[in-house]
User: Fold these one by one.
Assistant:
Number 1:
Amino acid sequence: MFLLTETNDTSDSVSSTVTDGFYQPIKDYVKMNTVNSKQYAFATIFMRDGSKTSFKPKYPNFANRKHTHSEEFVIEELEDFISRNGPMVETVYIYSYNSPCLQRKGGVQPCMFMLMQKAAEWKEKYNILLKVGFTKFWVPKCPDWFEELISTLDSEKFKDYRFKLDYKNLADKFKKSPIFSLLSQVDNLEKNTLFDKITSTRKDLLDLAQSLDNIGLRDDLLLKGEQLINSCKCSPIVRDEFCRILLKEWSETVNNSFEKDIKSKIRKEVGHAVILLFMDKLRSDWRNSFPLKLYRVSSPLQPNDNDVQ
């Protein structure tokens, strides 16, 4: 059994919350307020007299040179509170949208280790239990060789892999496209017609890229775009080049989206494995006696995400 768990506890009482799992009102807050993937973190403290204190969400600050993480702001706030009320505190709950990081640049201590240190310190001084919940697994920054390794994967092995087209990638390609240079190859009477055809065909491709049924297999998505482009009628003088340019932009979008999605999934799997192995090692060394425990908290963004059993 990992320390990492997801529970169905619905009680507000301190005793059952400490015994059964992560604090349900925080889980409810996450489901109501997590409307995007931006990182944030906040804390709720249970006192030994049954009262509780909640703090406002904190967001990371990447404008400063240090790049302060949201968990660091939460720890600073908790430190001040516990220094004044430590003996009266029973349990501290911290929620962070992403699981606390395990790696930082410039010799900065990772947030997970900061929390471990504080958990041990607060436990020793005041017998406080620290529980940390998160929704998304922290993903470590992969080295260049790992990125290159992913790029060499045999795409044929992923022929049954379904993914979503990157609409923005296609829109960016259209902005840089040389297709309007074709206007110079037709006479003035046909320029407006060709311009309208280029504009309408690109709109149809963007609509296709945004449509609900564009989650599919790579070959199927390539074929959909190819059929749409080849069905277009325009001046025979430029039609071959017209189709070539649009087919190139469409196929590059499909292939880029395919590779990007696979890379993202592999990175997430690596992050998932790193966190689980880390917690398994912690459990093995401390035999469940360590005063910090992690919980996976679902949100509307991951309604069917069952990574953690």
Note: Residues 1-20, 303-309 have pLDDT under 50 and may be disordered.
Number 2:
Amino acid sequence: MSHLPGTYGARGRVGAAGENYFARGLKRAGLTKFEVFYSLNIPDVPGKARMRGDIDCVIANGAKVVLIDVKRWAGSWLWTIPGTDKPLNGFLPYSKDGEWGLSKNMITALDRMRLRLPEADISAMVVFVPTKNHDPESVPRSVDFLIWPGMIRSYISGHAFGELNLRLGNEVVDVPPSALHLLTQLKRN
């Protein structure tokens, strides 16, 4: 399912374990009735640099597509200053790649997927899964206080499954062939 262990070693194994935990939760929640894709490349668009990151999971139902970034909760106290995309770790600025802010991979993936599938209703979310022995108590009760660039909301896995049902609907609808083709082409080997 995941390319992470071969690419990132021990950190990759931790990430892959989180993605596997999330995949099992999708199955328990009955969400695998929809089209589910794991570990997709961020789409290329003409005139833009190729992205190195990936999209951990994409779920499609009809014209609705949800991009999901799965994160293992590391126990930090991360939150975002209301009305901004400026994160803090406790009371100190949180930096990613030397810049004050969280990863911009998901907003980039969302923007590029919208360019490639303009007829689709595409949204994104970041989902936190337990780190410590897959114990659901090892994540906070809510991560509503952590907003990613592009106003992408965070969820803990238990809340994410309900949100996915709301976004995708209950009835299975065929995904347009053009969307299925693109999502299949983006799959990482």
Note: The chain has a mean pLDDT of 84.
